[in-house]
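Hey team,

Filing this mostly as a record. A colleague (T.K.) asked me to run one chain through the structure pipeline before their review meeting, and I want the input and output archived in the tracker in case anyone asks later how it was produced. No errors, nothing strange. Just documentation.

Input sequence:
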Amino acid sequence: MRAHTKAFDLAVRLAVAAGTRARVRCRREGGFLVEAAVPGDLGDEAHGAVLAVLAGADRYGHRYTDAAQAVWAELDEEDEEWEQPG
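Output structure:
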């Protein structure tokens, strides 16, 4: 699957899991960055769903401030071996 298709697929699944919008941006060094805000009251089931989505990324993490928290996922360039989780 092409990297941009994988990025948008991951963004949709992340938005559904977190119950928020997800953004997709091109990284300067190549690949894509997907980010989504995470509500503070995210339940255990939704939390597990978010982690399952993030596991499909090449790298991922969490940002936390007093005002908000968000998760991010980085996807490298083309990855023809990736298959959509099912």
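Quick notes for T.K.: Strands lie at 22-26, 32-37, 59-64, 69-75. The CA atoms of residues 63 and 69 lie 5 Å apart.
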